[in-house]
Description:
alpha+beta; seven-stranded antiparallel beta sheet; six-stranded antiparallel beta sheet; 6 helices; 13 strands
Amino acid sequence: MKIKKFAKKPNDLNDRVGKKLIVCYPNDSLDDNLKILHKARENLEKINEVIVSPRDAKTFIVEKGNFFRIESIKGPQVGDLNLFQLNNLEEKFYSGKTRAFYGTHLSVGDKMFSCFPYLRSMATITWDTLDWYGYDNDGGGVHDVIGTRCDPYTSKLLTDNDYHYCCHSNLTRALVKEKNLNINEAEKIVHDVLNVFMCTGFTDDTKQYFMKSSPVRPGDYLEFFAETDLLGVLSTCPGGDCGSEHSSDEAKCYPLKVSIWNVNKKYLKDIKLSTISSYNKNHGLE
């Protein structure tokens, strides 16, 4: 935290601070299929759904060209989402690069990019019933790619407790039970998440990550379009709406629903799907 200042201010301080900001990764060149996707979503047909119990996680599969929704069904609840390419679990969601492209919180039109060396959009967000929230007076917003996921290691570090229903453990457990991975394989591929419905930001003074009660209510949902075959894993956070704490047996928690939706491919004929990076992987060695 940059609040403890030990170094002496330089004489040329005014020449060093307050320079013009530059957006690091302008996203104007990224394909925008939103007009096509909004037309297509008017013709969706639900083909499957999965209910994720409180303080647990479940896997689900979405075929390329289908849509999926994460929905609040019984009460305010936050979910932690991992995405993998179905046939190659090494290709997984890259929250850091997605954040660099779109900012700290995602909504309609934003894409979820995969890790190196693939770096393609795995899914595009097509609808968000909470997009009215924007950013509040504390700078808080919904659906963040800031937080990593609550995990048992941080819980042990800060409280000296062994807690097994953190989102990291929930996601690991689902991969072990439902995809027949061993626990070491599963834990190594669990990755930083999209915090669905979570309301978060950075404090003004210390710039620390904060959370507050989510504005999500039953019937709210976040909708995605799958740009490749996906394996999703969703954890219902043990913090419930994350208005008090996470990694807790005390917080009121609710299930979440994942629904899968098909659409006639005629509505997608003009869409530009993302592709794996064409970088030659030379890295300057030849």
